[in-house]
Write a structure and sequence with these properties.
CATH architecture of chain B: 3-Layer(aba) Sandwich
Helix content of chain B: 40-55%
CATH topology of the largest domain in chain A: Rossmann fold
Radius of gyration of chain A: 19 Å
Strand content of chain B: 5-15%
Number of domains of chain A: 2
Number of strands of chain A: 14
Order of helices and strands of chain B: HHEHHEHEEEHHEHEH
Distance between the termini of chain A: 37 Å
Structural class of chain A: alpha/beta
Structural class of chain B: alpha/beta
Oligomer: heterodimer
Radius of gyration of chain B: 18 Å
Strand order of the largest sheet of chain A: 3-2-4-5-7-6-12
CATH class of the largest domain in chain A: Alpha Beta
Helix content of chain A: 40-55%
CATH class of chain B: Alpha Beta
Number of strands of chain B: 7
CATH topology of chain B: Rossmann fold
Largest sheet of chain B: 5 strands, parallel
CATH superfamily of the largest domain in chain A: Thiamin diphosphate (ThDP)-binding fold, Pyr/PP domains
Shape of chain B: globular
Number of helices of chain B: 9
CATH architecture of the largest domain in chain A: 3-Layer(aba) Sandwich
Number of helices of chain A: 13
Largest interface: A-B, 30 and 34 residues
Shape of chain A: globular
Amino acid sequence: MGEKIATRAAYGKALVALAEEYPDLVVLDADLSTATMTNSFAREYPDRFFDVGIAECDMVGIAAGLAACGKKPFANSFAMFSAGRAFEQVRNSVAYPCLNVKIVGSHGGLSVGEDGATHQCCEDFATMRSIPGMVVCCPCDGSEMTAAVKALLDYEGPAYLRLGRLAVDTVTDAIPGYKFELGKGATLREGSDVTVIAVGLMVQKALAAAETLAAEGISVRVIDMHTVKPLDVELVEKAARETGCVVTTEEHNIIGGLGEAVCACLSERCPVPVLRHGVEDTFGRSGKAEQVLEHYGLTADGIAARVREALKLKKG
Amino acid sequence: MDAKELHSLALTAARVRSLALDQVYTAASGHIGGSLSVADILTALYFHTMRVDPKVPTAPDRDRLVLSKGHTSPALYAALALKGFFPLEELKLFRSIGGHFSGHPDMRHVKGVDMSTGSLGQGISAAVGMALAGKMDKKDYRVYTVLGDGEIEEGQVWEAAMAAAKFGLDNLCAVVDVNGLQIDGATADVMPSEPLDKKFEAFNWHVLKVDGHDLEAVAAALDKAAGLKDKPTVILAKTVKGKGVSFMENDAGWHGKAPNDEQYQQAHAELTAMIGTLEKEGK
């Protein structure tokens, strides 16, 4: 297992690393640059960094105007605000005119921890994927984030990128043949009894669950679905056909996120039992991040339990 | 401004009004009141002030206009058609399923539209972004945005106003079409926004005040704004909602309503008479 680094930290480094190669890259923040990790870019490229203050709606609109003049803006805040508060600006000023703006939501999910429910956004996949044409991406580790930032710079169009607060193990760099491609899931572990489709920090937990279940004789395939939209339907369908049941896991409400996207895909293409694992349509609460995740069952054990349920449905 | 240019602008403004009326009548829907109040402002912008070339609608160095009060698209479409961005004939497709002239402007489908707008309060932020890009690239283009005095009740307008001042965007000029009315009635009753001059001054903007139907004065204010440095400029243009059609003037009921046949005939007759008089004067 590789370096332990938060995806937001990898994101901040990637912006700096890619700044010379992409002279049109500009970065906006709404008074959270020390948390979203855009502060290094701000230091290195002050002429290409704009802090608009605590005004996320305005930030998104400014980004739209910059994009209309050929810039490649990345507009940053916490997921709650960039994908929540500014939803309508993203829809009407960015996505409807199909402008090349990347909306970045840091501190997605419950792992915000101590700040509590007002800042724990478990609805950002839902809001962003409901907008026509939006790409929705949430890499699981630092290595994948670095590749995702470059891919999003090369992608012309509106997209949402979720960053995580917690340091997480780098897992993708150890996978033979792993290559990041926007819109294509990555199979991180082969398996034949069941497939776990995971996103964000649930990927590492899914790999841990697969290890536990292997000891019980259950062969678990693990797919890292870093792009929630457009969903890699071919990969999902193939997994359903080959393993016969699916569990999805996400640090997000089970409504509107990866789980529902997979359900929609499979109900149309290959109906098999699909169990969703995630935040059960509830608000979060304060606590240390790992404690909060545990409180809501977002653990490897939680995933393993859902896998056992799914296998029963498959057999039934 | 010489008399010839002034006369030409007046004639164009009258045609903008007439074409806006025709669009709303043909579509049997649309926002005529605000289109009539903003007609002179848009005419001054497109036919006196702005550096645009209808043959190269996306030229990187062009001046840009963001119609933040996007519901007055009939006036914008009329001005763009008269400027030559597309044939006048196409205006009959306003709000039609068979065309691209949406109720609110769509930059992807209508030549000359620099930003998709319609959701109030958002256009000014995009204009700030465009002006910022111009500063970054050391371009000399200017960015204009036209807002309604009802629209500025949206908090985002003031977020954008702060940002424009922070970034010293003297290449940005906002025009507020102060017609004093919004859907639910008088702006003074629905949500008092005056004193607008003091508000914008407090937000570190240059402030100019003008009669929004005095074409010479509007054009002069736009000229003056181009020379004001270090801060963005707002032109507070006092207007009459429904201007040019007697029974629509100062009536909030005409915000978003189409005239019936009889009303259209009367309005059309009034505007046609205005155009006729101006044409006669021009000869």
